[in-house]
Write a structure and sequence with these properties.
This protein is α/β, with parallel strands linked by helices and about 280 residues long. About 40% of the residues lie in helices and about 20% in strands. The strands form 2 sheets. It has a 6-stranded mixed β-sheet with strand order 6-7-8-3-9-10, sandwiched between helices. Strands 2-1-4-5 form a 4-stranded antiparallel β-sheet, with helices on one face. Helix 3 crosses helix 4, helix 3 runs parallel beside helix 5 and helix 4 packs across helix 5. It is globular, with a radius of gyration of 21 Å. The two termini are about 35 Å apart. It binds adenosine-5'-triphosphate. Adenosine-5'-triphosphate binds next to helix 1. Keywords: ATP-binding, Nucleotide-binding, Transport. Pfam families: ABC_tran (PF00005). It comes from Magnetospirillum moscoviense.
């Protein structure tokens, strides 16, 4: 069997005396789309920062592409990072540079390529994310969805073996969010890299995930396939899934009844209804 792209073993993190990540162990396999989910404050960003080598664990190990990210030399760590692409939630494009310049930046910093080749690679990657012809626009001229696409183009410009996406559909309307999901699936199929996605968006997670890691208060509550997570009878997982239902589905009649001070009659959100999720 081929080597896992990421292996995390017994990761513990403290912020001061607060135990934030508790004995987290997981693997991410080659070509897998691996989702990290969990409620606010559950530790998703902290875990992502660990996978990127930006935080030092209190205890435990993190192996990226076979290397312990904190045991290697600074030079090796730098080399590892060039094999990892990151698309940040905000896009994190430089506002003073055109879209094309933003995407070319990693090539200029890390690859020894002439300007013609940099231009070709940049335009190729823009094409991959359906932004061909937009290279001369400035980030401020892009829509929210286009910013996410440009951020993905920059993240893949070095042909990474690992791609990390932080809340790729945050702030987008459902149609645009779904097109970003499709793009993530397409990137994995075309480039074969492992993709780690941090998201709050359950629909997106269910659509693109091979496996989902559910964090709860810094612990791995579940780590399994989409089907297994959906079928889980673990109450905490069901609560997490149902939170989405309650937020997403506002029953206007029930709302009015509540405002009128009537007792809830509808069983729509009752325990039986939840089981049908
Ligand atoms: N630099 C820090 N110093 C102290 N505590 C922190 C720090 N960063 C995060 N925390 C705490 O660690 C816990 C986990 O935070 P984290 O940002 O990883 O959660 P999250 O799941 O990404 O949340 P969200 O979805 O709201 O972004 C939270 O209780 C948070 O308050």
């Amino acid at each position: 069997m081929s080597q896992s792209s990421i292996v995390v073993e017994n990761l513990n993190t403290f912020y001061g005396s607060r135990h934030i990540l508790k004995n987290v162990s997981l693997t991410v396999e080659p070509g897998e789309i691996f989702i990290i989910m969990g409620g606010s404050g559950s530790g998703k960003t902290t875990l992502l920062n660990h996978l990127l080598g930006l935080l030092i664990p209190t205890s435990g190990t993190i192996r990226i592409l076979g290397k312990d990210i904190h045991a290697v030399s600074a030079l090796e760590r730098q080399a590892l990072r060039t094999r990892m692409g990151v698309a940040f939630q905000s896009g994190a494009l430089f506002s003073s540079m055109s879209v094309g310049e933003n995407i070319a930046l990693p090539l200029r910093e890390h690859a020894e390529l002439d300007e013609t080749t940099i231009g070709i690679v940049t335009r190729l990657k823009l094409e991959v994310v359906s932004l061909a012809g937009f290279e001369n626009l400035m980030p401020a001229e892009l829509s929210g969805g286009m910013i996410k696409r440009a951020a993905l183009a920059r993240a893949i410009v070095m042909d990474p073996r690992l791609l990390f996406c932080d809340e790729p559909s945050a702030g987008l309307d459902p149609v645009v969010a779904s097109s970003i999901d499709d793009l993530i699936l397409r990137l994995r199929d075309a480039m074969g890299m492992s993709i780690v996605v941090v998201t709050h968006d359950l629909d997106s997670a269910f659509k693109i995930a091979d496996r989902i890691c559910v964090l709860d208060k810094g612990e791995v509550l579940a780590l399994d396939t989409v089907d297994a997570i959906r079928r889980s009878d673990n109450e905490r997982i069901q609560n997490l899934l149902n939170r989405r239902t309650e937020e997403a589905e506002v029953d206007p009649d029930a709302y009015l009844r509540r405002l009128m001070g009537e007792k809830e009659r509808s069983t729509r959100f009752g325990p039986q209804a939840r089981k049908g999720l």
